[in-house]
User: Which sequence fits this backbone?
């Protein structure tokens, strides 16, 4: 987008969303508002798989003054959604970097890499780990990166595995593992997978939604059953997870989802090709 | 101007005041004032009882606020948060560029967990659309899509006005306002597709949506 006029360029952040609570879409909406305030795009909009506007509303999201639209999937990994669902629903060429012309308006729609592919993910995961357990010695700590894992597309687990390998190679933590909700190594087996007195778990997820806020705490044993959503507990005056929890003779620290980090707005802008601002 | 449950009193520069139609006669001081169009996202999030509103065109917009906006860009941003995509859909309709998608076509392209929606029966569609999309308690959109490529009506349970873009789905009078923007529905939304899955699976709700 560097060679085009910012006022005629638009950003579309595509998120998953939820019909059950607002937490899934919240980070995308917050980052969109933050990017809008910077005035580096003529328009900034979101579209969702499960919420409104739906992706099929793409023809109605931008004014005719917009010439180029940069579509950034706010997804952690390349996989079923980024390769199949989003291109199909937006009626776009789904290859990263592909440009789809829109004959009706003359607009050019650019398909960008998902946020989870950005090189800063490693540093953001490490920052989350340090924030949630600021005083624990890393040599006596295992760091578990949790991804979704699914049978629909093998790529969904790759991102978490790559991040765990990168952080492990730094040699800071006693052990770094990628774990999953639905495929081995299972996050539910965290106590068997680690042998250190401290265990830090960072969900490699976009939002504090159903999976990271409600499902994983049950799998970890922090909660005995699924709790109210993050937004509902916040409305009731409750704080995010209290750390550490003492389980299986260990200190267990559980972080907030990485996608709620304010710096994600920078990542979205950079994935759109706008460069650092 | 009226759009859905919102009254827009426009100023010369395209800005103006937005408030709930039911709050038309409220004194300004009775309503919470907002001047940032970004606040519309939060105002559209929950209904009066504090329940989450996944369907922005449901007839349950929160009361008790008014939004005074500086210019047309701010007003457009706010309206696009209250009723995502609807302003643009109406513009496309007026320009002859709105192309509705039949429900069977929408269901036919689903993959993954929603592929099963292709098994929904005609009777199930009739009941589901008649209930979920009804203007009274369901959704204020005007349905432009057909059930299939043969042009079958989406549901026999909905009145003919539900498919008429000149009809105000809120059932309220609009004579005193200069213009009216219908909330056009060119394609079944994700929420209806999710409900179709629940119907086929024999559940009242699919839970993890």
Assistant:
């Amino acid at each position: 987008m560097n060679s085009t006029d910012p006022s005629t360029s638009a950003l579309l952040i595509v998120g998953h969303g939820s019909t059950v609570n607002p937490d899934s879409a919240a980070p995308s909406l917050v980052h969109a508002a933050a990017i809008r305030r910077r005035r580096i795009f003529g328009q900034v909009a979101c579209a969702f798989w499960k919420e409104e506007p739906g992706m099929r509303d793409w023809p109605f999201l931008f004014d005719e003054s917009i010439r180029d639209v940069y579509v950034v999937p706010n997804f952690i990994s390349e996989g079923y959604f980024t390769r199949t669902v989003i291109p199909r629903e937006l009626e776009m060429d789904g290859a990263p970097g592909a440009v789809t012309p829109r004959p009706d308006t003359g607009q050019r729609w650019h398909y960008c890499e998902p946020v989870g592919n950005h090189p800063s993910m490693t540093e953001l995961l490490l920052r989350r780990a340090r924030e949630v357990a600021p005083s624990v010695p890393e040599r006596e700590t295992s760091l578990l990166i949790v991804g979704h894992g699914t049978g629909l597309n093998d790529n969904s687990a790759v991102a978490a595995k790559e991040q765990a390998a990168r952080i492990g190679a730094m040699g800071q933590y006693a052990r770094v593992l990628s774990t999953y909700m639905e495929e081995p190594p299972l996050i539910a087996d965290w106590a068997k997978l680690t042998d250190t007195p401290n265990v830090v778990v960072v969900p490699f997820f976009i939002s504090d939604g159903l999976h990271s806020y409600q499902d994983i705490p049950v799998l970890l044993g922090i909660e005995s059953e699924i709790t109210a959503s993050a937004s509902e507990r916040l409305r009731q005056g409750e704080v995010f997870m209290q750390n550490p929890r003492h389980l299986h003779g260990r200190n267990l620290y559980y972080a907030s989802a990485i996608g709620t980090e304010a710096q994600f707005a920078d990542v979205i802008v950079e994935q759109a090709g706008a460069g650092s601002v | 101007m009226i759009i859905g449950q919102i009254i827009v009193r426009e100023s010369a520069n395209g800005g103006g005041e937005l408030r709930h139609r039911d709050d038309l006669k409220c004194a300004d001081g009775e309503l919470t004032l907002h001047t940032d169009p970004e606040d519309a996202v939060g105002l559209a999030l929950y209904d009066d009882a504090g329940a989450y509103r996944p369907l922005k065109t449901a007839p349950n917009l929160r009361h008790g606020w008014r939004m005074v906006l500086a210019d047309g860009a701010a007003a457009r941003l706010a309206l696009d948060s209250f009723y995502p995509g609807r302003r643009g859909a109406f513009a496309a309709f007026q320009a002859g560029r709105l192309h509705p998608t039949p429900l069977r076509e929408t269901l036919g392209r689903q993959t993954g967990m929603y592929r099963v929606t292709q098994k929904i029966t005609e009777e199930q569609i009739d009941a589901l659309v008649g209930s979920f999309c009804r203007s009274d308690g369901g959704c204020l959109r005007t349905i432009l899509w057909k059930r299939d490529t043969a042009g079958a009506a989406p549901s026999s349970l909905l009145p003919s006005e539900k498919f008429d873009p000149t009809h105000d789905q809120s059932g309220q009078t609009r004579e005193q306002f200069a213009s009216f923007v219908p909330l056009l529905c060119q394609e079944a939304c994700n929420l209806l597709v999710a409900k179709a899955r629940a119907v086929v699976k024999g559940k009242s709700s699919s839970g993890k949506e």
